[in-house]
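Suppose you are handed a protein chain with no further information: no name, no annotation, nothing but its sequence. What can you learn? This example shows the usual starting point.
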Amino acid sequence: MDEDVDELKDLKDKIFTFFYSIDNNPDGTLTFSEIKTARDRIRIELENTRPEDDDEEIFEIFYRHENWEKVFDALDLDGDKRSDFHEFYTATIDYKLLFT
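A reasonable first move is to predict its three-dimensional structure. Written in C-alpha cells, the prediction is:
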C-alpha cells in the first residue's frame, strides 16, 4: 500500500513539473495555445530521439492524436478556456479519457 502511495506522489510530482514547464507566461493555467506549443516541442524532441520502451506510449499519443481541441476540452473541466493544475492533474490521471 505504501508503494502505491509513493507511486501516486511521484506521478503527481511529474505532472506538476510538466504542467509548469509548459505554462509559458507562468500564470498557473494553460491555454490551448500553450498546449499546442508543448505538443509541437515534444513532437520535435521525440523525432530527434528514439523513445525508450516506457515512453513508447507517449510517443504514439503525440503522433497518433490529431484532435487537440478535444484534448484541450478534456483538460478544461470548467469550460473557461483555461486549464489550471487541478483540472490538468484530474484529466491526466486517467489519460485514456483524452486519447480514446
